[in-house]
Hints:
This protein is α+β, with helices and mostly antiparallel strands. The protein has a single domain, classed as Alpha-Beta Plaits, CATH 3.30.70.20. About 20% of the residues lie in helices and about 15% in strands. The chain has helices at about 45-50, 120-130, 155-160, 165, 180-185, 220-230, 245, 265-270, and strands at about 30-35, 65-70, 75-80, 100, 110, 140, 145-150, 175-180, 205-210. The strands form four sheets. Strands 8-1-9 form a three-stranded mixed beta sheet. Strand 4 and strand 5 (about 110) form a beta hairpin. It starts with about 30 loop residues before the first strand and ends in a 6-residue tail after the last helix. Mean pLDDT is about 85; it is low at about 1-20.
Amino acid sequence: MSSTTSTTTTTTTVSFPTWTPSWQTGVQYGFFFDQSRCVSCFNCQLLCKSKLGVGPGAVRPARMFVWETGTFPTVRVNTLFAPCYHCENPVCVPLANGALIKEPNFGAVILDPELAGDANYAAPLQAAAAACPYGAIMFDTDANTTAWKCDMCIDQLTMQKLPVCVLGCTMRALDFGPMSYLQSTYGTNADLPQVPSSSTTKPAVVFKAHDANTTQVVPYDVPTALSLMGSRGSLPPIYTSTTGITNIPAGTVGRSQLNMKATGADLIAATSDDDG
């Protein structure tokens, strides 16, 4: 006699809490960025480049900035997700001679791809790029040839899909939707330290800043730790004064300041250890 064992397989679907698009048009859409969750994986930046077909180099329509502040023992690595923030009052649009428009359905600031590399629009686009406080318009060389910028993944929006940067955020530090939804969910803060003021252009973004870095995670005696790190036994000490560690001279740290308006050459030099 043989017996048959029946096995029942149960499939569990895991759902993440997120906004369900209602996709009304004629309102301003924007981004949410949680600085406290971001680990600077650069996935948003790479996905954006891949989707838009941007080749290797300094052009990054959705940029991830990383810079250091503070000194031992309270060093802080800061991050900033910086696509175009599709400002409600975009100072770039009036200067671009028609190459940029403020799209009415989602509030996106769109660059006409047929005019992006047109020599007749080079000067207006350079003026628009210079006026943008966030450096959202960039060129594929420092000779300012073809212009690029984030387009809010507007083709995704028309298909009721989120922008690829938001979909690909592994730490769920990003969200997207109508500004009314973002502000009711996350608050109305549109400013972060070292980021240009939101007062002029009114960027369509909400930020959540990381907590102040004032508490040691593992309490210990700082002077003793500094003394131990400088000592090498019978060898000469690495340093005799801790001043150079606790008060770092300007220029010692390669990226100690946020620079959203760097040239392509500057950006490559400052981000040579980045992917993408």
